[in-house]
Amino acid sequence: MRLLTRTPFQFPEIKLGDTRRMPLWKKIKLCLRLPYDTAANLYMGLGAEILGGKTTDFKSEVAFSVSSSVNVEIVKRIKDHFNVAYATVLYAAMFGAIERAIEVSGQSVPHTLVSAFVLPRPNHPKGLNIHLAMIFAEWPVKSYSSVDRMLKIQKNFESLSTSTAAAMYMVVIRAASILPMRVRKFCADLFLRIFNISVGCTNFPTTIGRESYDEHEMVDIIVAMGTLYSVGLVTATGGLNNQQRFNFTVDKNLLGSEDAARKLGSFAVQELQNLFNATL
Asked: Which of 23, 111, 226, 273 shows the smallest number of beta carbons within 10 Å?
């Protein structure tokens, strides 16, 4: 984005671990943990509840839902009050919104859902390079309160922060990149037939100042991500000038109610308001 628009895009500083600064014994320990962490991460997808039932591919039209803008100070207030991560608050709002949408559509709310989500990596090589990793996680959906869901999500993040599975997935993805597209599509489809991945998640940082393009101020940004294979729901966050937005792309047949799908953005804001009220 910085290259394309020639604007600095000022983001808050993100502290990422750098394995190059680790002592040798720690690097060896991480390598030895790779098989176990990867197996444990994949195991959560076996037999997990799946949103919308098992399907080969979602090929119908999608519904796109965008929330109203929310000042990041609200998210920070919740984060500081409950001593959780910023991303934890965002995920709590997103999966709370998913619970509300499922309830409105008249379906049974699953206790948890497994998602694939991306992680930023340190030492970006610069240029047009997608520099990220991927990992799977199981998130609470059905919960007796918004705060309870958020605290469970925080524990999940803490557990994932010590997993080496993302490193193994990077190796596999790089190896798969040399395969023909048809073979890669077949492997991805086979993977999603075996493992119950319901949601795709990604977070773009919200800029901390005004941005411009061709001397014109950017007033808003919307992150749109398409559905993929049998994953019929993709969530994304992002925003400009300290204004946070939640974005949902949903296959129209996934929830059985297009109206419920289009309300996901407003549901996320309502969940965020519930969490904010709990700080008062």
From this structure: 23
Given a cut of 80, is residue 213 above it in pLDDT?
no
pLDDT of residue 56: 47
- CA 142-144-145 angle, to 5 degrees, is 105
Q: Strand 211-213 vs strand 112-120: parallel, antiparallel, or unpaired?
A: unpaired
Say how many Å lie between the first and final Cα of the chain, rounded.
38
Q: Please, is 230 exposed, middle or buried when counting C-beta atoms within 10 Å of its C-beta (0-12, 13-18, 19+)?
A: buried
Please, which residues have CB within 8 angstroms of residue 213's CB and are 6 or more apart in sequence? 5, 6, 7
Q: What is the DSSP string of 209-272?
A: S-EEETTEEE---------BTTB-EEEEEEEETTEEEEEEEEETTTSS-HHHHHTHHHHHHHHH
Q: Is 7 helix (H, G, I), strand (E, B) or coil?
A: coil
Backbone angles phi, psi at 203, to 5 degrees: -125, 125
Question: In the CATH hierarchy, which top-level class contains the domain 2-6+17-277?
Answer: alpha beta
Please state, as a whole number, how many other Cβ atoms lie within 10 Å of the Cβ of residue 193.
13
Distance CA 72, CA 65 (A): 20
Rounded Cα distance, 121 and 268, in Å: 27
Tell me the per-residue pLDDT of 12-21, one tens digit each, with 9 for 90 and over: 776 655 555 6
Rounded distance, CA 213 to CA 219, Å? 10
**Is this structure's pTM higher than 0.85?**
yes
User: What b/e readout covers 89-109, taking b as 16+ CB neighbours within 10 angstroms?
Assistant: bbbbbbbbbbbbbbebbebeb
